[in-house]
Amino acid sequence: MSDPSATPLLDSVPTPEELRRIAPGQLVQVAKELRQEMVSAVSVTGGHLGAGLGVVELTVAIHYVFDTPRDVLIWDVGHQAYPHKILTGRRDRIRTLRQPGGLSGFTRRAESEFDPFGAAHSSTSISAALGFATANKLAGRPGKAIAVIGDGAMSAGMAYEAMNNAQAAGNRLVVILNDNDMSIAPPVGGLSAYLAQIVSSRPFLSLREIAKKFARNLPRPLHSAARKADEYARGMTMGGTLFEELGFYYVGPIDGHNLDHLIPVLENVRDAEEGPILVHVVTQKGKGYAPAEAAADKYHGVQKFDVVSGVQSKAPPGPPSYTAVFADALLAEATRDSTICAITAAMPSGTGLDKFQAAFPERTFDVGIAEQHAVTFAAGLAAQGYRPFCAIYSTFLQRAYDQVVHDVAIQNLPVRFAIDRAGLVGADGATHAGSFDVTYLATLPNFVVMAAADEAELTHMVHTMALHDDGPIAVRYPRGQGTGIAVPATPERIEIGKGRIVREGRQVAILSLGTRLEESLKAADQLDAMGLSATVADLRFAKPLDEALIRKLLVSHEVAVTVEEGAIGGLGAHVLTLASDTGLIDGGLKLRTLRLPDTFQDHDKPEVQYALAGLDADAIVRTVLSALRRNSVGVVEGARA
Q1: Is residue 137 flagged as an active site residue?
Q2: What is the reported pTM?
Q3: Out of 285, 298, 416, 543, which one is annotated catalytic?
């Protein structure tokens, strides 16, 4: 990618401070080497590739022009921040991306002073940058706040809420709209770049300010006409009327890969007294790496790959993913029922709804990054007699909790929530973990909350949801491959609030919710080898609880343990409440709850994360033995003998 005869430059610019010392004419070479380094690193680690390749020149230009980290740079989502990490003192660790103990795949405050604000969920950058800019203004400190936000993230209402309040920050706030799908950009070229440079220049802005002051002294009709003439003149040549109406001075669009265009415009913006300013740059996902440029998804997220061919490593053949099982089950239900609709928030392939969309395009709704709208839209469909399935990752459904409560639960509308990525998610870490959905849903009146233990159970639960018209209902399931159990050709309707006994025993009861069932059965085998007979129950429902089954297990076993892939306040808390309300605790009940720890766990392999969380078979066994030692040492000692 870079000229092999040229002296390497990337080694000489480990931080933006060194970058700003080189000549402008050398920046193109830095960008080429930066792109090459990023491709090389991600080929080893996997991760988000296309977005970062698309902002290489933009990253170089921002750090060259602005005084980072004194000027704070906030990346929306963070998918595109790998080049930023390389240029900000983390190149020596870039091949630890998303690896245990390594760099985060997103921006993270604890990682570097150049990451002033953590990201991973979209559409937060403008609000955060506005906070930084306003704080500087209140404190009388110098410094800009630069938010880089993609056109996809602009589909979320939060971005516009922030822009609507941005005028108070004045010229301390700069928003860079990275338009990488050409979705809102008129043609980009030399004329557009020339106009952008002119309108962002100090002479133009000074003349414009003089004209505005003069116009204020005119009679109101003439003042209004002068203001509109200014807006329309620039709007006709450059676009951006929407952003102007929100109080931003619009500059662009400009070619985000042309440093000769980017540098002078950003310098003008940096020095401008007018503000806040929005700079519209047009980029290409996957830029500079042919396999990524040619890919339909622009290599958004990749496994390890061969740099020369671009061929990604394939996981060994195995069972279908839970996402695929859900997609197939929903397709089957929709074939039988024309009232079933599917809703996704910009994640059709991630949730498996691309299959549904191919079969039923008129019943599929991708609303963009707008989870709040997705939930209330689904509520409206349900109120009109349709059966909407709202498929959203657990971590993203958090963004719509008020709508879940107010628009769905209070009105008892039968919206079906398919909650993907429940539990821990490995390399994406704490920001994408589905830790809280059982806690925040099972606390709501009218809700039914299920967790699938395996692929067959998920198929039955999708069928159960399709037939449930009495109120909101949710099923949660994890990322990744299933257990390999056969999926039933004819799904069965599960009785609401009824669990099942998977293994009969006498002394220990393990009450599992979700895919920890496999580890629960392994734990039962280990306990059996120690002479402790264990019952394993798949409760299926966090709400409503199978109270009859739970009470039976609690009174007939010496110790009971609940196991779930969620935070405190979930299944264990509900079982403890049941035991308290029914007086079972007064009888000396030995009940322990296993759930995710009260921490945000770092990225790692999922099996390692669950072991560290105390949710594998060994941890279940340790918990049982600890409970028995504390209360009846002889039982365990006798079993060992």
Answers
A1: no
A2: 0.85
A3: 285
